[in-house]
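Please fill in the sequence for the structure shown.

STRUCTURE ENCODING:
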């Protein structure tokens, strides 16, 4: 019986892992510049964390979570997003009692959602995300957006648009929810089943529906920017001013609400048309009540999530080039058992000196060894047989031009 990987998963093989490492290196560098530090949380949590943190009106909680009962009878869920677990750790580890704000990131964190696989978004995909906790200042919003935007541009994806919006706070959103209910009241027969439920429980979520019929209706829906309170308006204007100071172009899109219940005030998306309809590269926003909802102090937060698979997909579609890893510096070809022993010793010595090196491990013929070395892209080959062992010298060949030179085996590590 042939065993295949589950639908919605994908191996990251040795043919592609260098691309991930390239992106991860760029992420580590930019987060260092912005003062963010790495954190890692478990890939599964108690289900209650996501019910309280993500919100029970979201598609994630209602339809997409991988939830099971463990042997102790506890309800456990594979991580469907990164923020809730990060805040749980922030509270539990005592970081909430230390200096604020706390700026942290997670990298290539597996995320699990049971949904139809799409471009760059599998049932198991990987996210880079940041969380800035402990400050409600709009400069934090702009800084997080700046980090995401500059990262995407910095790796060579330039055809992107930054869309921002304010979805208000707990004070002003009830007025907007009321306006939405009134707008949709005579349009119920045109709403999908999910949106009929959302209309009563969380009308804001209607603006995030992906059904074509609902998308048409939202075009003329009331705009939340007409309903936000003065505090939210000033906050949103300050975010825009900070983005302008950073030279980051943006567009205001009043239909952005994001798909998670915990967002307040600023929300944003960075989108591209390079990969068709599924063009959101990054999305996030502010969540001022989430820390206290999960048992922590009344602290504000700001963050985003960015799918690594989709980022790589967009980079490739944009014509971006990821440098391939350096090949093995020297491959030692051998003839005879004593030569193999000598090669093993030399390879070990070279590696200790920081020189990447390898040798044949299948006992091929000399001709086959040279072919294999060429396929691996080795820069040099060193040939050792009985004659080389007796003289202590061997032929070192530069593979790209075929030039050779004689080197002493005792000095091979210092030569490199």
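FILLED IN BY: designer on duty
SEQUENCE:
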């Amino acid at each position: 019986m042939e065993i295949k990987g589950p639908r919605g998963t994908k191996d990251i093989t040795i043919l592609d892992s260098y691309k991930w490492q390239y992106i991860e290196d760029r992420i580590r560098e930019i987060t260092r510049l912005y003062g963010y530090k790495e954190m890692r949380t478990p890939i599964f949590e108690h289900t209650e964390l996501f019910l309280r943190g993500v919100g029970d009106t979201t598609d994630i909680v209602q339809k997409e979570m991988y939830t099971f009962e463990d042997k102790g009878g506890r309800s456990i869920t594979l991580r469907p997003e990164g923020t809730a677990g990060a805040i749980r750790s922030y509270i539990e580890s005592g970081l909430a009692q230390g200096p604020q704000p706390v700026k942290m990131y997670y990298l290539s964190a597996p995320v699990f959602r049971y949904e139809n696989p799409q471009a760059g978004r599998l049932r198991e995909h990987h996210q880079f995300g940041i969380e800035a906790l402990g400050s409600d200042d709009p400069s934090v919003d702009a800084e997080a957006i700046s980090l995401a935007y500059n990262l995407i541009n910095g790796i060579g994806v330039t055809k992107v648009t930054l869309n921002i919006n304010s979805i208000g706070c707990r004070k002003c959103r009830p007025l907007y929810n009321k306006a939405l209910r009134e707008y949709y009241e005579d349009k119920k027969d045109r709403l999908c089943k999910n949106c009929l439920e959302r209309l009563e429980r969380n009308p804001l979520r209607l603006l995030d529906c992906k059904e074509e019929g609902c998308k048409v209706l939202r075009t003329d829906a009331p705009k939340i920017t007409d309903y936000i309170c003065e505090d939210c308006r000033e906050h949103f204007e300050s975010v825009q001013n900070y983005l302008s100071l950073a030279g980051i172009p943006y567009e205001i899109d009043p239909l952005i609400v994001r798909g998670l219940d915990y967002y307040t005030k600023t929300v944003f998306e960075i989108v591209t048309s390079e990969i068709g309809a599924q063009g959101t590269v990054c999305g996030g926003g502010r969540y001022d009540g989430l820390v206290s909802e999960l048992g922590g102090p009344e602290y504000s937060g700001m963050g985003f999530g960015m799918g690594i698979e989709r980022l790589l997909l967009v980079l490739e579609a944009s014509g971006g080039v990821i440098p391939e890893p350096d090949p093995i510096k020297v491959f030692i070809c051998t003839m005879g058992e004593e030569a193999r022993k000598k090669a093993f010793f030399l390879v070990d010595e070279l590696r200790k000196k920081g020189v990447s090196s390898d040798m044949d491990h299948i006992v091929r013929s000399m001709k086959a060894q040279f072919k294999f070395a060429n396929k691996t892209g080795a820069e040099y080959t060193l040939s050792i047989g009985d004659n080389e062992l007796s003289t202590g010298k061997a032929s070192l060949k530069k593979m790209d031009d075929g030039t050779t030179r004689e080197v002493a085996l005792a000095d091979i590590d210092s030569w490199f």
